[in-house]
Amino acid sequence: MICSTIKEGMECPFMSADGCSYNGGICHQVIEQCQGCNRGSEYSSGWYCTACPEPEMKWKNGDCNLASHVSSASTASKTKINPLKASKRARR
Fold first, then answer.
1. Low-confidence ranges of the chain (pLDDT < 70)
2. Claim: this prediction has a pTM higher than 0.70
3. What's the total number of domains in the chain?
4. Concatenated DSSP letters for 22-51?
């Protein structure tokens, strides 16, 4: 349904006929870590994330998985390669 509380005119999965069904009944403003993200939008009452209603919870356990301004460095550990298998693969 269309939001009628904070993000007026935007499609919101938490809106119902009774109003906002999200915890607390309103969306929360973006936090400092969200500055620079493409998902932030300015409304009459402040800056809000268009992807999630409570950005602080996305940053609680590390980087937000929806943040467009954070690049995750792959921490893939080097696995030991069996030289016998590698030589067989090279022959193919």
1. 72-77
2. no
3. 1
4. STTSSPPBP-GGGTT-TTEEEETTEEEESS
